Structure formats: structure tokens, C-alpha cells
């Protein structure tokens, strides 16, 4: 069992806020930490790794990471950490990035094989693509067989098809090494696919904690589809009014009535939902 | 003309190179830990240390030379200590101008190194700590190999700056042939005794050396920037 009970004063963009997190995490589970940027997710992960100080206690199974009297240095925590920006040792070859952590050639070549990097092992990190670099970072984190793997938005800089591949690799490593994994992410599909539990932070506090299915499915009542978007513009076309709304990375047009316009302001966050219709689902052939 | 060149005494240049080599080596050893500390700390003494390190850039060499002369002379505790225990004279000796040069060129070594360390990806260093490596091992195997352009800039600029120093060396070392008469002091002497032809040649050599050194640094940095931006 991993027990976390910490507080820390943070100075965010909206001024001072108190990070206050009390969590118990089952060993072997995969937990996602979600929340808006500036909610304290990354700081929380850095505190677990010992890269930042906080008041309170953290214990991982039988070892105490920190309490009133002790503070275990990051060197002694035996965790794996995957940074958003890869943070590879640029002066070392891919293989040496792994061997720097531990001189275990057998494990290194196994990890490189699992992630299909064997052929690149003598290359320098600067010559790799983003997806390949993040794989190396993942392998490096596994080199000292950590009990606890921490990942800070590991896939946010990658394109969708690469994300999917890496998600599968993360999941297979999580299972093979019997890891407890804590991953910061704000991609709902990623959380749904990987995590068994999602903890949502807001302004440093836990505001939601449960199964991804319960928390991520936002539709309520009889609404079948519900998307949050930003109202960009309202155009008058002949006799009707068309609202241009940005949902995710897509722009959509929706017909709105004169009455509805009265309640809408350009730039506003809006909820777009429909009910009672049968969606048609077609597989998308990847262009990549 | 050929007569002048063949009779020219090149020992001041050799002395300048010896002084610059020794100074650069000592400063490198001292500055790497100092620059590393300054780049990693948020301590309140950091601005004080940074200001102290930068002082030689701002101070007139005569001020630095005067204080060093006072501090290193045999009447001072430091000078006395070296004289009594090691029989070393700190003023008007080669050893003395090495000490003086180390103070004078300190910022030229520390600042590029500190900038280099500060430009490193902080997460990369943290990844090394999380991998179980100490700060020392991280410095040696991760930080230093990743700031090669800064290392080169720091050593070459320090070397060149030491070759070019004049005021401090003159005040602390005087003008003793083969001991403290470095190239810049020799040029001053030639002008004083109105031997302009020798002064011309010495000066021209200094201009050439300095230009070649700087050209080398900027060419290397341009190339390594290209590598990074590729």
C-alpha cells in the first residue's frame, strides 16, 4: 500500500494555493492524475520523487519516503520517472542511457527489444523522433526495476498513432514488472485505456476520485453526446444563425435560434449535446 | 628588418603562454565546482558570490593590483606565511603573477561555465539523481559532457584574457626578465625606451594571436549551434 498525506504551499498563476493531498494507492494499480494545468499535478509527482519538499508523510509498502523526521533523497527512493520532455542524457548513446542507471546489459537489451529500439541502440538521443525518445525514457526508468513508476504527461507531445503504440508498451511493462504506476495525463482516452483509477485535482485539492468510466463519461440525463467547446463566432446566413464552435481541435457549425443567441457570448465556454438519435460509427483508415 | 626579427627576444611571449596555461588550469579546477554550485543553488549568498566573482571585470586593474600587492607582500600575514614555510616570494615573482592572474581572470572562467550549467535541461539532471547517482557523479558524467561549447569558450577566453592582461601583472610582478616580464609588459617597456620597431612587432603578434583565438571560438560555437538546431 502506498500512503500519501502531504501539504505544500504553491505559488501558481492565480496566486497562492495549498496543495493538500491524502491518498492511498493499492500496490500494482495504475492510477491517473488529471486536472487543469496549474492544479498541482506535476508538483505532486515531483514531491513523490523527492525532487521537491512538502510537509507530511509518504510511505511506499514498508519503506518511508518522508515523515516528520526523515526525508529520503531521490537517489534512495528507487522509483522510475518519465518526464514530459524525455530528459535523456544527450551525451550518451541510447544503450548507455540505460546502462548509466544500472550496468545490466541483459535487462537493457530486453527492454530495447520490447520497445523495438534495438537497432537504434548506438545512436545519440538527438537523432531520434519524439516517440522513440520517450520509449528510451521509459526503458531508462525501468532499468532499476522500480516498484513505483511516475510519469508526467509522457505522451502529450506525441501524435495520436504514436500515442496508441506507446500506451500499449506502457501497459505491457506495467504488467510485466508488476509496477505501481502513477501517471499525470489530461487525455481522457488515454486515461480510460490505461488507468484503473483516476484522481482529479483542482487548485491543489482532490475533487474527484474513482473509476475512469464514472468520472470521464460526462453525459448526464438523456443526453447521448456532450462536448465542451468554445463559441468562436455567430454568423447570420440568410434567415438562420450559425454558431461556429471549436470542440477539441475541430471547428463545427451549429444552427442556433434568435432566442438562443441572447444567452450566448462570443468567447464563452459552451456545452454541445444532443439526444435521441442513432450515431453511425465507421472505422477510420489511418493516413499515417 | 630581418636583423630586427632575428634578434628579437621571444621570451616574453613564452612567459605569457606559460602564465596563461598555468592560470587557465588552476582556474578551471577552481571554477567548475564554484560555477556548478552557483548554477544549482537558490541560497541567499548566491548574489554576493556572483558579485564578488564579477568584481575583476569592473575594477580598474590598478585597484586589484594594489590590494594584491598589499595582501601578498612579505609584510602581510599571507606573504609572510609563504616566505617562512615554503620560501616563496609572492610579489615580483612568477608565482605572484599566477596568483594575481587567477583573481583577474576568474569571471572569464566562472561565467561561461555557470551559463552552460544553467542552460542544461534541469529534468536531465533530476533523471540522473532519480537513477541513484550522486551530485558529483551527475556533474562528471552528465553535466560536464553536455556543456562542451561552454567549456571550450571558458578555457579559451580565460587563456586569451590572461595573455592580454597588463596592469595587474605590472603592479604585482614588476618587470623582471624571464620571471614577470610578459609580452604586454615588454611592449610597454619598448615604448618607454622608444624602441618602436620592436613594439610594433610585439603588438602585431599580440593582435594576430588574439584574433585567431577569438575566430576559433566563434567558428566552433557557430558550428555547434548548427548541430543543435539541425
Overview of the structural elements:
The complex is a heterodimer of chains A (288) and B (230). Helix content of chain A is 26%, strand content 34%. Chain A contains eight helices and 14 strands. Chain A has helices spanning 41-49, 94-101, 105-114, 130-142, 160-176, 188-194, 212-216, 258-262; strands at 2-12, 15-25, 30-35, 55-60, 63-66, 80-82, 148-152, 180-184, 197-202, 205-210, 225-237, 240-247, 250-256, 269-274. In chain A, strands 6-7-8-3-9-10 form a six-stranded mixed beta sheet. Chain A has a four-stranded antiparallel beta sheet with strand order 2-1-4-5, with no helix packed on it. Chain A is globular. The two termini of chain A are 42 Å apart. Chain B contains twelve helices and no strands. The longest helix of chain B has 34 residues, at 196-229. Helices cover 78% and strands 0% of the residues of chain B. Chain B has one domain (16-179): Orthogonal Bundle (MetI-like fold). In chain B, α6 runs antiparallel to α9 (148-163), α6 runs antiparallel to α10 and α11 (183-192) packs antiparallel against α12 (196-229). Classes of the chains: A alpha/beta (288), B mainly alpha (230). Chains A and B meet through loops of A and α7 of B.
Amino acid at each position: 500500500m502506498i500512503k500519501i498525506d502531504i501539504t505544500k504551499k504553491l505559488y501558481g498563476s492565480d496566486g497562492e494555493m495549498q496543495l493538500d493531498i491524502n491518498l492511498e494507492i493499492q500496490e500494482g494499480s495504475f492510477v491517473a492524475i488529471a486536472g487543469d494545468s496549474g492544479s498541482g499535478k506535476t508538483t505532486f509527482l515531483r514531491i513523490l520523487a523527492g525532487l521537491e519538499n512538502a510537509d507530511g508523510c509518504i510511505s511506499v509498502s514498508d519503506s518511508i519516503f518522508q515523515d516528520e523526521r526523515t526525508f529520503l533523497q531521490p537517489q534512495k527512493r528507487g522509483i522510475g520517472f518519465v518526464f514530459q520532455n524525455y530528459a535523456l542524457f544527450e551525451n550518451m548513446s541510447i544503450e548507455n542511457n540505460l546502462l548509466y542507471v544500472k550496468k545490466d546489459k541483459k535487462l537493457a537489451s530486453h527492454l530495447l527489444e520490447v520497445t523495438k529500439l534495438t537497432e537504434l541502440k548506438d545512436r545519440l538521443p538527438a537523432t531520434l523522433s519524439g516517440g522513440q525518445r520517450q520509449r528510451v525514457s521509459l526503458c531508462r526508468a525501468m532499468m532499476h526495476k522500480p516498484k513505483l513508476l511516475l510519469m508526467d504527461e509522457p505522451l502529450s507531445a506525441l501524435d495520436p498513432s504514436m500515442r496508441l503504440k506507446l500506451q500499449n508498451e506502457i501497459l505491457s511493462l506495467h504488467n510485466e514488472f508488476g509496477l505501481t504506476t502513477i501517471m499525470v495525463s489530461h487525455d481522457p482516452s488515454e486515461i480510460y485505456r490505461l488507468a484503473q483509477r483516476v484522481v482529479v485535482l483542482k487548485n491543489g485539492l482532490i475533487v474527484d476520485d474513482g473509476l475512469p468510466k464514472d468520472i470521464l463519461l460526462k453525459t448526464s440525463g438523456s443526453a447521448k453526446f456532450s462536448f465542451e467547446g468554445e463559441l468562436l463566432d455567430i454568423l447570420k446566413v440568410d434567415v438562420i444563425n450559425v454558431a461556429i464552435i471549436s470542440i477539441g481541435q475541430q471547428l463545427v457549425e451549429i444552427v442556433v435560434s434568435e432566442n438562443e443567441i441572447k444567452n450566448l457570448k462570443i468567447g464563452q465556454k459552451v456545452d454541445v449535446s444532443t439526444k435521441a438519435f442513432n450515431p453511425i460509427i465507421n472505422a477510420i483508415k489511418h493516413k499515417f | 628588418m630581418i636583423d630586427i626579427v632575428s634578434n628579437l627576444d621571444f621570451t616574453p611571449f613564452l612567459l605569457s603562454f606559460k602564465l596563461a596555461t598555468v592560470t587557465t588550469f588552476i582556474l578551471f579546477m577552481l571554477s567548475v565546482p564554484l560555477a556548478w554550485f552557483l548554477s544549482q543553488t537558490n541560497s541567499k549568498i548566491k548574489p554576493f558570490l556572483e558579485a564578488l566573482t564579477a568584481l575583476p571585470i569592473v575594477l580598474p586593474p590598478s585597484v586589484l593590483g594594489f590590494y594584491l600587492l598589499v595582501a601578498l607582500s612579505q609584510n602581510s600575514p599571507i606573504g609572510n606565511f609563504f616566505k617562512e614555510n615554503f620560501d616563496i616570494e609572492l610579489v615580483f615573482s612568477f608565482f605572484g603573477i599566477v596568483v594575481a592572474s587567477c583573481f583577474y581572470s576568474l569571471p572569464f572562467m566562472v561565467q561561461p561555465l555557470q551559463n552552460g550549467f544553467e542552460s542544461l535541461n534541469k529534468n536531465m539532471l533530476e533523471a540522473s539523481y532519480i537513477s541513484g547517482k550522486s551530485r558529483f557523479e551527475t556533474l562528471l558524467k552528465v553535466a560536464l559532457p553536455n556543456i562542451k561549447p561552454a567549456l571550450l569558450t571558458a578555457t579559451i577566453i580565460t587563456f586569451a584574457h590572461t595573455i592580454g592582461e597588463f596592469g595587474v601583472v605590472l603592479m604585482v610582478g614588476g618587470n623582471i626578465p624571464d620571471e614577470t616580464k610578459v609580452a604586454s609588459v615588454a611592449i610597454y617597456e619598448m615604448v618607454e625606451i622608444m624602441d618602436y620597431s620592436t613594439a610594433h612587432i610585439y603588438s602585431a603578434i599580440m593582435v594576430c594571436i588574439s584574433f585567431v583565438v577569438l575566430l576559433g571560438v566563434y567558428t566552433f560555437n557557430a558550428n555547434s549551434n548548427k548541430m543543435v538546431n539541425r
